[in-house]
């Protein structure tokens, strides 16, 4: 598997294809919520396996000290392969390189345990985004 920072229109299209498959088609998130107009202000990441785009994520500034990890997606056939961890390692490395002290994210309830294994801690009560239960989580870098 190959996780990289997006640096071309083709890679961005691949990342958006993964997000569309996972969030819009699989989870039923409305397109206007998934494609939220904030992609221009983010650093994007895409993951490939065998030449196919299979994962994506984006990173945006939350405040001067923290970045927010968003749109972490892994296609169904690649889950439980270590790809999610590889994506998060790459995103966190980029956040460090940008000078952030911590990262936060809104984790869907079913994957909170995954983020806890990566060192994230729950920092909120449960709330709903796009009809899906979430919790805010943070990690110091």
The radius of gyration computed from the alpha-carbon positions, rounded to a whole number of angstroms, is 14 Å
Number of strands: 8
CATH architecture: 3-Layer(aba) Sandwich
The string of secondary-structure elements, in order, is EHHEEEHEHEEE
Structure summary:
With 141 residues, the protein is α+β, with helices and mostly antiparallel strands. It is 30% helix and 36% strand. It has one domain (2-140): Gcn5-related N-acetyltransferase (GNAT) (Aminopeptidase).
What report would you give on this structure?
The chain is of the alpha+beta class. The protein has a single domain, classed as Aminopeptidase (3-Layer(aba) Sandwich). 30% of the residues lie in helices and 36% in strands. It has four helices and eight strands. Strands 1, 2, 3, 4, 5, 6, 7 and 8 form an eight-stranded mixed beta sheet that branches. The longest helix is centred in the N-terminal third of the chain and has 18 residues, at 9-26. The two termini are 24 Å apart. The model has no long low-confidence stretch (mean pLDDT 96).
């Amino acid at each position: 598997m190959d996780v990289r920072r997006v640096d071309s229109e083709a890679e961005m299209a691949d990342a958006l294809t993964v997000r569309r498959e996972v969030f819009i088609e699989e989870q039923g998130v409305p397109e206007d919520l998934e494609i939220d107009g904030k992609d221009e202000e983010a650093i994007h990441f895409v993951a490939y396996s065998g030449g196919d785009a299979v994962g994506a994520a984006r990173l945006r500034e939350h405040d001067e000290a923290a970045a927010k990890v968003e749109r972490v997606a892994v296609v169904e056939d690649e889950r439980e392969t270590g790809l999610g961890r590889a994506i998060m390692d790459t995103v966190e490395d980029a956040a460090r390189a940008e000078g952030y002290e911590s990262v936060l994210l809104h984790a869907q309830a079913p994957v909170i345990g995954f983020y806890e294994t990566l060192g994230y801690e729950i920092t909120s009560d449960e709330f709903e985004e796009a009809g899906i239960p979430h919790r805010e989580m943070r990690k110091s870098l």
